Amino acid sequence: METMKIVLYGIVVLLLAGCSSSQRLVEKDTATEFTLSRELREVLYYASLAPNGHNTQMWKVGVSGDGKTLNVYLDSSRLLPVVDPEGRESLISAGAFLENLRQALGAYGFTGDIEIPGTIAVQENPLVASVTVTGGSAETADPEILKVMEIRHTDKSKYLDRPLDAGAVERLEASVPGTLRIYTKGTEEFGALRDLTMEANVIQSSSPAARAELAEWLRFSDDEAARTADGLPAEQLGLSGIVKKLYYLTTDREKAASEKFGKTSINTAEKQLYNCAGFFVVTGGHTPRGYVQAGMDMEAVWLRAAAEGISLHPMSQALEETETREKLPTAIPGGEFFQMVMRAGYVKDYGENNRIRRPLREFVFLEP
């Protein structure tokens, strides 16, 4: 029996980066514990489809009594202190939430005036932004941007051997002027970033603390994924069908935190880094406000990329590890301003977001 498990584990390793899925495990739930218009509940649901580290969904939203102010906070219980000790990537995730919120408000006929404080306090559940909502809701929501939010997702699967479309690259760079850098496969910058990302992956996957933190957010059955409505089940790792079943059969939290699993992760990362058309890099200033803005820019780019049929997969390990982060400015001019690195390319079927998200009532509350 043990031999069979080892064989099955080997099959999972070989196929880990090669499958994707759009199976829905969690039903949409927009109920709140206080009265809030249907349109604003829909807006907050779409905002929650934003990308975020390990799918911890590290946000809370306080709604004023009149529904005209939405205060977005970081949820301190859902941060990642090992790989993100300064909260930089958590603020980027909050920025992505804000960008979805801004665009979803527009889709429903509202305007959202976003105010990011000059200083984001280092405290429990800090305020990230206040959004003043004006205007009336549209009778019919604009379906285009909402559909893009529904399909946008992290794609860790195997990409096609196809270069990025030059026209798409120009449109994406123009969407956030001066913020997005695209390094296509074969360029010197691409090679340098690939190698530093690989080096950082080895550091993280060799770290018991980093492996344990990741393992806490992995999910090991459909039931667990449905119950928690967060974290990383097989679908979020790009696994489906028989590969997903084998993964659940052979893996648990203890194994996921093991050195063996770490070595598997290194092999998978290497395959992914050599199997892409380029890297998208979002730049920004090194202040809390700069991180939030970088998150908004990242999501604006990601939504446009999804509309263009370009798959993205965040691989920012080189920014998370001090050793590799300090090498970036020498390896690539301007590397000190990198805030998010994403593997980019095309797949046969873009698919959609699995929408593994918590019910609104778990993160939306009425301000006192």
TrEMBL record:
Coiled coil: none annotated. One of its GO terms (molecular function) is oxidoreductase activity. InterPro entries: Nitroreductase-like. PROSITE patterns: PROKAR_LIPOPROTEIN. It comes from the Bacteria. This is Nitroreductase family protein. It comes from Breznakiella homolactica.
